[in-house]
Specification:
Blueprint lengths: L26 E10 L4 H12 L3 E10 L4 E10 L1 H12 L4 E6 L6 E12 L2 H13 L3 E5 L3 E8 L1 H15 E6 L3 E4 L3
Antiparallel strand pairs: 1-3, 1-4, 2-3, 5-7, 5-8, 5-9, 6-7
Helix pairs in contact: 3-4
């Protein structure tokens, strides 16, 4: 029986080659989409994602120009570079879409999110929850003898970190707005 030999430094096209190709790397991208503020515009953009099997990690939308009747949809999605390019091209062809910007590749941007956490706790857990809230610069927006509602704004990673610390202390409910993002500078 002859053994297959591969020269050192050569790449194999086998299913067992675990080195990812550029096209196999999944990246997270933040897209800013400017659309007409009309009924069905959001449904058409989001329908494209569900129809093609693309996932949405975060979605926010609001009117940004009252006189021009324009809304901004901020979408955080993941995919290979080829998939992201395909998403941008397909979204750009939808009728109510004016502009599509990939904030991840166009330069530095600022991303923020708002979240509220309900934490039900007593005794030492209550003291620890307040101590952590102070460290994270979190606001207490409601308080009873047995619970808190905290309000936190910041990068999604900051919100995730605060949630993980609140879980063992009695995290009962979470509401998140999704990412809002703008390009930095001029």
């Amino acid at each position: 029986m002859a053994a297959l030999k591969i020269k050192k430094g050569a790449t194999s096209h086998s299913a067992y080659n675990l080195r990812p190709n550029f096209s196999d790397v999944v990246e997270k991208h933040t897209l800013a989409v400017l659309v007409e503020n009309e009924p069905g515009a959001l449904a058409r953009v989001i329908g494209l994602f569900s129809g093609r099997g693309y996932n949405i990690d975060s979605l926010t939308v609001a009117e940004v120009d009252h006189t021009g009747h324009l809304s901004r949809i901020t979408i955080v999605t993941s995919g290979t570079p080829q998939v992201i390019e395909q998403i941008k091209a397909q979204v750009g062809r939808i009728v109510p879409v004016h502009e599509v910007h990939d904030l991840t590749v166009e330069g530095p941007s600022v991303e923020r999110e708002l979240a509220m956490f309900k934490v039900i706790c007593k005794g030492e857990h209550r003291v620890e929850a307040l101590r952590l809230a102070d460290i994270f610069r979190v606001n207490v927006v409601d308080s009873t003898l047995e619970s808190f509602v905290f309000e936190i704004t910041g990068a999604p990673e900051k919100i995730d970190a605060f949630a993980e610390l609140m879980r063992p202390l009695g995290l009962a409910d979470v509401a998140r707005t999704g990412v809002a993002a703008l390009a930095r500078g001029v």
